[in-house]
Design goal:
The chain has helices spanning 2-17, 88-93, and strands spanning 26-33, 36-44, 49-62, 71-84, 104-113, 119-120, 130-143, 147-160, 171-185. By secondary structure, it is mostly beta strands. It has one domain (22-185): Beta Barrel (Porin), CATH 2.40.160. Strands 1-2-3-4-5-7-8-9 form an 8-stranded antiparallel beta barrel. Strand 1 and strand 2 (36-44) form a beta hairpin.
């Protein structure tokens, strides 16, 4: 009888670990950071891969003795970012939360910032449109049922469409992505 009970518990334990841990089918949320606010959706592409689409505002600050006041500007940004949540299974095995795609990730963040409009405390501020590709490492963790925080770091490439803004030639440069965000998942 003891052997039968042992095999039943062993079987249940084996089936519990055999479950397929994967990213959620679809997640909607809103996040804010020090310099911006974004609305996003993550759609499942594979067990550990999700496609994040994001619309929001990236912001910036400037100031100094050349300006009358400290300035700010916010421009729209459209982002697509495939994300590989590489430690979902390990987190599940350690009985840590994975809901809401709470895990570490690698992403290829592609962003387009068009010169549609600029929100600023200065008049006649314009923005040169750009496109960036930044490989990024990050983490997302949950705080309670709906809140989460996210941090990421990456180095990549940015291309400025300067000719369209009246400059002689377009330019490119290296770019750093450092983001710290807190959000709400619907």
């Amino acid at each position: 009888m003891q052997k039968i009970i042992f095999f039943i518990f062993f079987g249940i334990s084996f089936l519990d670990h055999a479950q397929n841990v994967s990213v959620e089918q679809s997640i909607y949320g809103i996040q804010t950071g020090i310099l911006g606010i974004w609305v996003h959706n993550e759609s499942r592409l594979a067990d550990q891969i999700a496609l994040r689409s994001e619309v929001g505002f990236d912001a910036g600050l400037w100031g100094g003795s050349f300006y009358d006041k400290t300035g700010y500007a916010a421009t729209p940004v459209l982002t697509l970012s495939p994300r590989w949540y590489y430690n979902l299974k390990r987190r599940a095995e350690k009985s840590k939360r994975t809901n809401g795609n709470s895990a570490n990730f690698l992403a290829l963040k592609t962003s387009f910032r068009p010169d549609w409009f600029v929100i600023s405390n200065y008049d006649n501020v314009s923005y040169v449109s750009d496109f960036s590709i930044v490989p990024t490492w990050g983490i997302r963790r949950n705080i309670g049922a709906h809140f989460n925080y996210e941090a990421g770091l990456g180095v990549g490439y940015i291309y400025y469409f300067a000719k369209a803004a009246g400059y002689d030639e377009n330019e490119s440069a290296g770019v750093v992505n450092l983001h710290l965000r807190i959000g709400y998942r619907f």
